[in-house]
Specification:
elongated; CBS-domain; 4 domains; single chain; about 15% strand; alpha+beta; 15 helices; 4-stranded mixed β-sheet
């Protein structure tokens, strides 16, 4: 006969087995959750370190990657340079940020869920404070671990071992870019638009204010120093057409020129780069670098110099010179052909032209020093008609935009006078505009050759004060 206590014993055994099962399942869930969180922390660390690694690569590091010729190095270079350096780095940064934020968000959400399932600490309530330990652990401690392990330590390590991280993460980042390409392009594109907006807003607001600050900062400062500072400020607002050498002044070579005539022409020209045209200057075929002809200098027989012609770089007239300088640096060229909206050749622009816009005239060993103007007194000058208005404002010491209201599309002094008159004036004619008297010293039926300029400094100062 069974005792009365036997049913109670069986019930206790069943409860103990259920309790043990619950404890063991919680332990398994906790271990699996810990493994998942540690894995995600490792991924966060890798993505964070890759950001510092890729964007701390020096030119020498890029050369090392180029010379390795390994698939991983090629992928890394493509991530940075495709389709161009600026766009490539933006897309790479967008890819890293998307992946890093996805992993970090998952860590925070999953760790909070796991903690709530495994633990439930009581809320501490006092007369002056209510403290929730669950909140402190879930938010403060988890965030601290995430920032320390997933951000700070990996970035410090990546700065010192950038090539190692780049090789490790190049392929995974390429895969992530392919998978999340629509989101990457959207993020990179929106950042590009925002960047252009800020850049435009910065220029519109600050250029005039900084220029005025330079004028009043130190009245004892040399005029040339002020012009250099103003040249730097206005650098991004200057277009190619304002500094280019017009087609009428460009020295160029016909592609049908014989090799011996070419060598004699080069010896007389004293230029380091010469445009080569076919039939007319509107059909530029390339640029001849004089250094490429050095091996043939002493050859008496003809040689095929056409193989030495390099592809020309064409740019529009209204391209800004700061963008052109950046393009020169990227493509490692020093000369570009300026074309108008109809495809005709307007002239050429060189690296030297860009630098002269900031630092003034640069005279090298091949330049012939020509007197481009005469100074009769403090307020009277004689200029050639082809003298650029940018140079005029520097020489007569007025603001760079002094003639903006009356110049129209003119870029030279002769063009300014013709814009004012609406025709080519005759020799001896006087034109008064903006408190300056222009006297035509020499002109023909095609252009103005020489102009005498006299300014009234008192009236100019009064206008500027107003």
């Amino acid at each position: 006969m069974k005792s009365d206590s036997e049913p109670y014993q069986q019930t206790l055994i069943l409860l103990e087995s259920i309790l043990k099962l619950d404890v063991s399942s919680s332990l398994i869930i906790g271990l699996i959750g810990l493994v998942i969180i540690l894995t995600c922390l490792a991924l966060s660390a890798l993505f964070s370190s890759s950001e510092n690694a890729f964007f701390s690569l020096s030119p020498s590091d890029l050369i090392v990657l180029n010379e390795e010729n390994s698939p991983t190095s090629k992928i890394a270079i493509d991530l940075i340079n495709e389709p161009d350096r600026k766009t490539g780095t933006r897309r790479l940064l967008a890819t890293i940020l998307i992946m890093n934020n996805l992993v970090n968000i998952f860590i925070v959400i999953y760790s909070s869920y796991l903690f709530e399932r495994l633990f439930e600490l009581p809320i501490i309530v006092t007369s002056w404070l209510t403290l929730d330990p669950n909140f402190i652990i879930q938010v403060v401690i988890i965030t601290f671990i995430l920032v320390l392990v997933g951000e700070i330590i990996p970035k410090i390590y990546a700065t010192q071992n950038n090539l190692k991280i780049v090789r490790l993460m190049a392929r995974p980042l390429s895969i992530c870019y392919t998978v999340f390409k629509p989101f990457v392009l959207l993020l990179a594109g929106s950042s590009s638009l925002f960047d252009k907006y800020l850049k435009k807003r910065f220029h519109n607001i600050s250029m005039e204010e900084i220029s005025q600050a330079i004028d009043i900062a130190d009245e004892n400062k040399e005029i040339e120093e002020k012009h250099i500072l103003k040249g730097i400020i206005q650098f991004g607002n200057t277009s190619v057409t304002q500094i280019m050498k017009p087609r009428t002044e460009v020295f160029c070579i016909d592609i049908n020129t014989s090799a011996q005539d070419l060598l004699s022409t080069i010896a007389e020209s004293k230029h380091s780069r010469i445009p080569v045209y076919e039939e007319s200057f509107d059909s530029i075929k390339g640029i001849l670098y004089i250094k490429d002809t050095l091996p043939y200098i002493h050859k008496k027989t003809n040689f095929n110099w056409h193989d030495l012609i390099r592809l020309p770089m064409f740019i529009p007239e209204h391209k800004k010179i700061d963008d052109l300088l950046e393009e020169f640096q990227e493509k490692r060229v020093h000369m570009a052909i300026v074309v108008d909206e109809y495809g005709g050749t307007s002239g050429i622009v060189t690296m030297e032209d860009i630098l002269e816009e900031v630092f003034g005239e640069i005279i090298d060993e091949f330049d012939e020093e020509e007197l481009s103007y005469s100074k009769l007194d403090e307020d009277t000058f004689i200029f050639e008609g082809k003298t650029a208005l940018n140079d005029i404002t520097k020489i007569i010491a007025v603001d760079h935009d002094y003639f903006d209201k009356i110049k129209g599309d003119a870029e030279t002094l002769g063009g300014l006078v013709m814009e004012i008159e609406g025709k080519i004036p005759t020799t001896g004619q006087e034109i008064i505009a903006e408190n300056i008297t222009f006297t035509i010293e020499s002109a023909d039926n095609r252009k103005i050759n020489r102009i005498k300029l006299h300014k009234n400094p008192e009236e100019i100062i009064d206008d500027e004060d107003e």
